[in-house]
Amino acid sequence: MNQDVIVGEELCWQAAEQRVAFSAQWQGRHIPCFISLHRLEHMAAQPLQDEANILLAFESVRFDIEERVGMLIEEEAFAPDGGVYL
Length: 86
Fold this sequence. Notes:
Layout: E1 5-7, E2 12-14, E3 19-26, E4 29-36, H1 37-44, H2 51-60, H3 62-74, E5 84-85
Helix pairs in contact: 1-2
InterPro entries: DUF1488 (IPR009962), Shew3726-like_sf (IPR036692)
Protein name: DUF1488 domain-containing protein
Pfam families: DUF1488 (PF07369)
């Protein structure tokens, strides 16, 4: 990942939205980031049914997630709300 983008360690499973929330820092900005359960299941190549397994799966593919988030941030591909969505 580019050294200019730093992905934080804190993860939050948002059950209502079926996504994991995390954050990144870029040029002094805090950027909210999200990965959908569907995308995470695809990346981890397994179905995920509870919060513990979802967060473990995130960690197992963290490097790939950080790479994708870093590319989107560098391309300034932000959603209208300023977040990055995978």
